[in-house]
Amino acid sequence: MIKKTKLADAVKLGLIASLSTSAFVASQTAVAAEGEAKVERIEVTGSRIQRQDMETASPVTVIDASAIRAEGFTSVDQLLQAQTSMAGAAIGSTSNNGSGGSAQVDLRGMGAERTLVLLNGRRMVSSGTGADSAVDLNSIPVAMIARVEILKDGASAVYGSDAIAGVVNIITKKDFDGLLLDVNGSGTDRGDGQTAEMSALYGVNTDSGNYTLGAAYSDRKSVIQSDRAWTEAGSSSYIPTGTLGGKVQDANGNWVKRTTGYDFTQDSYYQTPSERYSLFANMTQDLGNDLVLTGDILYTKRKSNQQMAAQPASVMLDVCGAPGADAVKCITLDSAMTAGGIEADKTGRVEYRRRTNDVGPRISSQDTDTYRASVDLAGSLDINTGMNWDVSYTYGKNKASSTVDNSINATKMEQSVYANQDAWFSGQPLTQDIMGDIGYFQQADGGNEQHTVAGVLNGELFDLSAGAVGFAIGAEYRRESGYYNPDPVVVAGDSTSAQQDPTDGNYNVISFYQEVSVPFTEKLTGEFALRFDDYSTFGKATTWKIGLTYEASDELMLRTVAATGFRAPNVSELFGGNTGSFDYLDDPWGNEQDPQIKVNYTSDPDLKPEESESYTAGLVYSPGFIDGMSVTLDYWRFKVTNAITRLDAQTGLNECFAGNATACETFKITLDGNLDDFTNPLTNVGTQDTSGIDFNLAYGFEALGLDWKISNDMTYLLNFEQDSEDYTGTVDGNFGAYAKIRNNFSIQAGQGDWSVTYFNRFIDSMDDIYTDYDANDEPFTAVRQSDSVLYHNISGTYHATDALTVSVGVKNFTDEKPSTVSNGSDGGTVPEVYDTIGRQIYGGVTYKF
């Protein structure tokens, strides 16, 4: 018999506590039934050793399908970004600028590329629009999820690269018998942002196995920024009538200073539209002789859009007769222009700006296909008390085509302005011929491919007085490749978007790893892992992990983990095509004509891996005087060195100007300040250092004739530093939010066939640091406070019959408005952090045949 203690039950309870207390009941595949003499061995995220319970040194949060349904999550990214352990600003459904329709996870705010995403314990292919560095969570439909396990410490010694911040392991529904139909929908109380989901799951048991098939469809509608009262109107200096030297013509034909701006929020999305189709299947087949064949297949098609205001275009025009100007290709300033103060600058040019509304808004579209198939053959060996082995092959592929409608060819625009000065400067709409000449349909394609072959042997080595020594030893081969082909106009550098070259590359890695679990005493257990990886790019890497658990009593367990980790440079970092970026910089030589200086962003095939150290220490406490309560408390810290990043371009300019030859060589600047080949390469110079405390309370009890369940999750951020900059307690549109306190609370009451749950989600106030200007128009650093936010959600579930279940709910019940952020990424806030959609009502019906 397996020894059962109050603490063991508490650990399980704490592991499966989540935002919804309905998640307290673990999947039968995760926790064996009480009272059985023989307990099934399982694999818990963070270890390859199959064990008889879920007690480990590593903190793991488990969120099951019922919890996902209770809060009305329609995508995996929404589910994950609601967790208190997330920070930063991972892209998702509210990311309108630059997301490419993808959705990612950002554990601890350390970057999506530093969180490893697994599907059924195996790597998921990177996906998006091409040569991507992270998994697109949109490729995994919510309908197929049985549970999500979040490992919140470094796990490179177990899983290899990318697991610096932790691991998200998505477990799909298996061993299903019957037919399940599920229909869900939601919408805002303003009549927009509707979502619809339909799924079907069919499973059949045979004498020797199970086959489960599923299909899912989802459709998400858009929300326009200007349709929300809290959105401040935009006031861009790029206006549809155009400006010359910052001046516009008034009704009398006089050139006067521009006093109006363009409201770009009427064209931009808060919620981006998306349509997804998914097919998935799982199978388990007993082949006899202790051989079991398992497999899973997933296919997802995503069609998504983003929309932004028409392209803001700027050209510098030579002024006829001005010193340094082109004598042939130039514009003539008439008397009205000169009277209005329009004149050439010291380079003989004047700037013309225009919002190209005549061509139309920028509409980005993506059509992506993601395929994933995995097959595993497992068996056992009659050695010692029995050992288990399995070999697997996993294949993943992602391909995408992406387009941008109403793009502008900057070269043709400049030529058109010279050729049609009256039409461009009149402030009137442009002709169809001009619009057809400067506008174009931008097209690109890309993809990723992954092959993984793995084998593992696990079991018990020998017995000690306190129990058996468990082990796992394995090997893995993985090949990654990716490509991206930009539009030819972009490659040629003629687009208003940044010039970019194609990307194409691949690498492979061979890995060996081992784990050992040693019960030193009945109370003290040690977990040890060691991994060796050999990459075709940078060479070898070795990582380790040490964990200890100590059962101080039946009520208290202490645990700690120390580990090293690494992140291998990805395809785009190694083989990415050179990309031009116009950065706001100060040229100390005074040679550059514009404040936006072109910088050539390059990749580097000789990049080394990022390295990390992580440490967690905590406790699990189940007080004997309060039945059904579990408390977990964990301190964590992560340090990353040799992080892959770009150098500080302004510092490079200044140091080269001061005579530092190394800086000049690194940035490809001549000693006299020629910036024609100004380059900023990726290199291993970045750092991260973050620490905090996680707290969880789970409590189930009976009172007033009802069953009650309470859950509280809190993360207190002690520190987050990146590249020597302190982001603790700050928010910004570029890097997102690092609130000191994030807290999720839920309370559920139910009886028999019904239950009602109240949730709230708290985000602490943060410093909003921005650039302001004094009375002399001189810039200075200013700080304001973004408001704290408390979101309230309510849901109810009713099991009308054994077959029929109905659920309803309201998100953001009090219609809290998002906090204003000075340097916000959209709508004067950060949509990836705050709810910009408003109150939403959702509901669903499930019927099982």
Distinctive features:
globular; 849 residues; TonB-dep_rcpt-like; 22-stranded antiparallel barrel; 43 strands; cell outer membrane; mainly beta; single chain; Maltoporin, Chain A
Quick summary of this structure?
The chain has 849 residues and is mainly beta. The chain contains 12 helices and 43 strands. The protein is globular and about 95 Å long.
- The CATH superfamily name is TonB-dependent receptor, beta-barrel domain
Task: Name the structural class.
Answer: mainly beta
Number of strands: 43
Helix coverage percent: under 10%
Main sheet properties: 22 strands, antiparallel, barrel
CATH topology call:
Maltoporin, Chain A
Q: Describe it for me?
A:
By secondary structure, the chain is mainly beta. The chain has a single domain (6-222, 272-311, 356-569, 607-646, 678-848), classed as Beta Barrel (Maltoporin, Chain A), CATH 2.40.170.20. The chain has a 22-stranded antiparallel β-barrel. A 5-stranded mixed sheet has the order 3-6-7-4-5. The two termini are 38 Å apart. Residues 10-39 have low confidence and may be disordered. This is TonB-dependent receptor. Residues 1-32 form the signal peptide. Its main location: membrane.
